[in-house]
Amino acid sequence: MVPSLLLASILIFLFMHLMPGDPAAVMLGGSATQTQVEQLQEKMGLNKPLPVQYKEWIFKVFKGDLGTSIFFFKPVLEVIASRAETSIFIAVLSMILVVIFGISIGIISAVKYNSLIDQVFMGLAMLGASIPTFWLGLNFMLIFSVYLGWFPTSGFPSVISSGNLSNLRYLVLPCITLAVPNSALIIRLTRSSMLDIIKEDYVRTAKAKGLSPFKVNMRHIFRNALISIVSALGFTFLGLASGTVVTETVFSLPGVGRLIVESVLRRDYPVIQGVILIIVFLYMFINLLVDFSYAYLDPRIKYS
Fold first, then answer.
1. Closest to 172 (Cα-Cα) out of 142, 147, 132, 137
2. Which residues contact 214 (CB under 8 A, 6 or more apart)?
3. Is residue 172 packed enough to be buried (19+ CB in 10 Å), middle (13-18) or exposed (0-12)?
4. 75 by DSSP, 3-state: which?
5. Whole-angstrom Cα distance, residue 67 to residue 273?
6. Domain 83-258+271-297 sits in which CATH superfamily?
7. For the segment 131-163, what is each residue's pLDDT rounded down to a tens digit?
8. Is 68 helix (H, G, I), strand (E, B) or coil?
9. I want to staple 102 with a disulfide (CB 3.0 to 4.6 A). Which of 39, 132, 183, 249 is the partner?
10. Distance between CA atoms of 294 and 280, rounded to whole angstroms?
11. Rounded to an integer, what distance in angstroms lies between the CA atom of residue 154 and that of residue 248?
12. Tens of pLDDT along 20-76?
């Protein structure tokens, strides 16, 4: 992970500085003179050679300092932390819905293979995977917020700072919006993985021994299908946690996804670099946990 993170940090830094536009010019506005822009570049260290800028930045990263936001004039970690609460709650709550509905419906479809229930569930899964999230979110907002008045239309007051768990109602519609397409993926994957294992000899042997259908399906079929399911769940969670720009925009949520887009438009290099570096680390860390889980799920896999 260490060399991978170093390589990722180099690519992130280079790509940020290859972007068109000058942060100093953006901050000063169109009426600024070239002299003023150059003075601000010198103050922010943007006139130094790229290797020198990268060296200074990466040394600070090793010390836990991701720099200072050019736009907010705050430490990058503080800026990210102010948006992280929303993204974490969305990712966790959406993931709970994905696991509950995706796996359970996938198991039922596999057990009831080629039946009317299976065909209905697969049709709904295809529909859920095909519907654009922005369209789904807008219709949920129209029905459940405007017409019925059950949920707020936008925003998210902090739960941590206020201590009010009822604020989570602001995330109900966004989480359902995200859970629908992601559940569709898990449903299809769970079904296909279980159908592949149903054909194995040890499954027929378990049935011949007189084991109940529940034990056969859960202990012998579902458990052996978990490796591919867990892999998909890991990357699904990462996708939810790393920022869902469309959903955050539709529901006006102060999440990490919107922060990235806003920082790109402002040419706020430190924030962009910090957010992407954290996301890369999360991808590597979750992928590592998923790899370790294989040994638990399948005793035949051992790490030495």
1. 137
2. none
3. middle
4. strand
5. 9
6. MetI-like (1.10.3720.10)
7. 888 888 888 888 888 888 888 877 787 777 777
8. strand
9. 183
10. 22
11. 9
12. 666 666 666 666 677 777 777 777 667 777 788 788 888 888 888 887 787 778 888
Report pTM.
0.78
> What residues contact 87, with CB distance under 8 A and at least 6 apart?
241, 242, 243, 255, 256, 257
Residues of the chain with CATH 1.10.3720.10: 83-258+271-297
Residue 302: its pLDDT value, please? Answer: 67
Helix (H, G, I), strand (E, B) or coil at 84: helix
Mean confidence (pLDDT) of the chain: 81
For residue 255, the model assigns a pLDDT of 81
The first and second tokens of residue 165, run together, are 């768990």
Phi, psi angles (nearest 5°) of residue 199: -80, -5
Residue 61 corresponds to which amino acid?
V
One-letter amino acid identity for 66? L
The Cα–Cα gap between 142 and 181 comes to 19
Tokens of 160: 């941590």
Q: How many CB atoms lie within 10 A of CB 115?
A: 12
| Residue 170 and residue 252 in contact, taking contact as beta carbons nearer than 8 Å | no
**Phi and psi, residue 68, nearest 5°:** -120, 135
Can you tell me the distance from the alpha carbon of 225 to that of 219, in angstroms, rounded to the nearest whole number?
10
Integer angstrom CA distances of residue 223 from 144, 149, 166, 210, 249 = 38, 42, 36, 19, 38
Q: What is the mean pLDDT of residues 195-221?
A: 79
Average pLDDT over residues 201-220: 78
Distance of alpha carbon 178 from alpha carbon 98, whole angstroms: 9
Q: In whole angstroms, what is the distance from residue 43 CA to residue 71 CA?
A: 14
Computed on alpha carbons and rounded to an integer, the radius of gyration of the chain in Å comes to 24
Query: Could you report the per-residue pLDDT of 114-131, keeping only the tens digit for each?
Result: 889 889 988 888 888 888
